[in-house]
Amino acid sequence: MQAKTRHRLLLFIDATVGPRGAALGVAIKDEGGRLVGWRGKSLGLMTINEAEYEALIYALNLALERGVRDVRVFSDSKVVVEQMAGIIRVHHDSLKRQHTRARAAAARLSSVSFTHIPRELNVLADAMAEEALLSGRLRRLLDAPYPHVPAISEAAPEEAPEEAPEESTRCSSS
Questions:
Q1: pLDDT tens by residue, 152-171
Q2: Contact at 8 Å (CB) between 50 and 95?
Q3: From CA 44, how far away is CA 20, in angstroms rounded?
Q4: In 3D, which of 75, 73, 76, 102 has the Cα closest to residue 11?
Q5: pLDDT single digits (tens) 68-99
Q6: In DSSP terms, which residues pair with 72 in a beta bridge?
Q7: pTM reported for the whole predicted model
């Protein structure tokens, strides 16, 4: 079964970094400007520009997987937009690899454009990146061992009270 082809998608991309990792966010709109999808993804440790490129690559691949061949990319990363448009050169080796990957994905499209927008116009992609960063942080916290807290199987069982109280105590502010 072939994927349904949409005429054009507008891809709003963003990324964020924290002390323990990075995350990306993508908001997808149809050509009428209606929101049709959104994604966030937690990434490993990387710079903000590396994370912005990961957001771009991720968004372009989402469009390609859906059979879309005409996209407009909007980003608040001036570096990524200007490098993809050929206005400025890519100097860092890590960005050169990502730039090459982004270029390869863009080359598979029949039409792609890159537009720099102010951060205020990219709030949904920004929120998706922030949420993905937070959920990645939460996942690491939940998976982390806490040596000062015994595991449930190691904790001493609580003794049940001999008699259940007839009435619960309630606090009220009068």
A1: 555 555 555 555 444 444 44
A2: yes
A3: 8
A4: 73
A5: 999 999 999 999 999 999 999 999 998 999 99
A6: 10, 113
A7: 0.76
76: phi then psi, degrees, rounded to nearest 5: -90, 5
Tokens representing residue 164 in the block? 């259940």
CATH number for the domain formed by residue range(s) 9-141: 3.30.420.10
Domain ranges, ordered by start, for the chain: 9-141
* DSSP structure class, residue 121: G
Token pair for 146: 């806490």
Residues contacting residue 8 through CB under 8 Å, at least 6 positions apart: 30, 31, 68, 70, 71, 72, 111
Contact 11, 71 (CB under 8 A): yes
Residue 90 phi, psi (nearest 5): -95, 120
Q: Could you give the CA distance from residue 111 to residue 93 in angstroms, rounded to a whole number? A: 27
Helix H or strand E encompassing 38: strand 35-43
Alpha carbon distance 91, 61 (integer Å) = 24
